[in-house]
Amino acid sequence: MNKRVIPIVDYRQAMPPGMDAGMLPAPAEPTGFLGDALGRPLHDLRISVTDRCNFRCVYCMPKDVFDKQYQFLPHSALLTFEEITRVARQFVAHGVHKIRLTGGEPLLRKNIERLVEMLAALRTPDGREVDLTLTTNGTLLKQKAQALKEAGLKRVTVSLDSLDDQNFRRMNDVDFPVARVLEGIEAAHAAGLGPIKINMVVKQGLNDHEILPMARRFKGTPYILRFIEYMDVGSSNGWRMDQVVPSREVVRRIAAELPLVEADPNYTGETAERWRYADGSGEIGVISSVTHAFCQDCSRARLSTEGRVYTCLFASEGHDLRGIVRNGGSDAELAGAIARLWNQRGDRYSELRSEQQNARALRKVEMSYIGG
Ligand code: SAM
Ligand code: SF4
Ligand code: SF4
User: CATH number, domain at 67?
Assistant: First the structure.
């Protein structure tokens, strides 16, 4: 990676207790480039638009925690579309050129197409469009794909953990049939929201027997299947290392029947390792968040539904931007707060997880809140 090392001020040292980055004076105008404390640029922004979901995937929102009593955020706490767009504009001014909408289930947010339209109108400092994508469980895609495309969405990623209807219903834990998600994927393809990626989280003993059936099903189709290692994100899924199926095992099992050759990454910092079918009939990806940390190239910030910025998926605390937005802060203040919190970022949880076991004991934000 071409790392630009820039001078860093450690604002944590300078910041009085109880103050957040947003309360400090703003630096100069955004320049289209921000580096963190380890020299990593800011390129991607994931925006969570809701903490609610119509699924209760067992590895993400287990029913015993996310039950009827669970307190989701009140509507007034959520950033409005105007607020999200205003914050995103400052991120884009700082060098973000890829935005992914997520959740909870992002298609549950009312009039999400309107937000897509607003974000699609953003331009990078050199006048380019932003690469605008969305991750969804696919349940509402059939109805929404065309409107999302017309609003300016470029692509979608659909989560699909099983092709076996019974197992799929068991994993989403709300008895949702897999056929409806497959219809959603086809509708997204027909609407031109491709290339579509299909994400399968693999959990030992739950769906690892479906690795090969999934590979067979999507080989030779326009869809790019990606296998994700089950992660210790959040504190409610009871994660254990022995439930992780390492990516190298996924590749080994597929290659034993369908020969694979390793392919180069599309760009620096790509989270998936790519493998092509040797017979030229497409590719798969593996995302080894647990067994092969990729912190050194991590260029991703996450904006929560209520306007907090998380500089790592495994962070326990976010930096509040909603306060600036709702208390009359200027765009320059917003831009300054983003610059400071990125400048001071030193997160590398996945590397530490491998180095020191006690990193896992930290309290972490839930996946359904931050959006993966
Ligand atoms: N609801 C949407 C969906 O499922 O696509 C978007 C939000 S979901 C939190 C984003 C992604 O995180 C999904 O692909 C999901 O499978 C993945 N995910 C959730 N919990 C995970 C875990 N413990 N380990 C790995 N991936 C996880
Ligand atoms: Fe919902 Fe996505 Fe989490 Fe499943 S992975 S519970 S669909 S937010
Ligand atoms: Fe990025 Fe944090 Fe994941 Fe490392 S652990 S790749 S810093 S999100």
Answer: 3.20.20.70
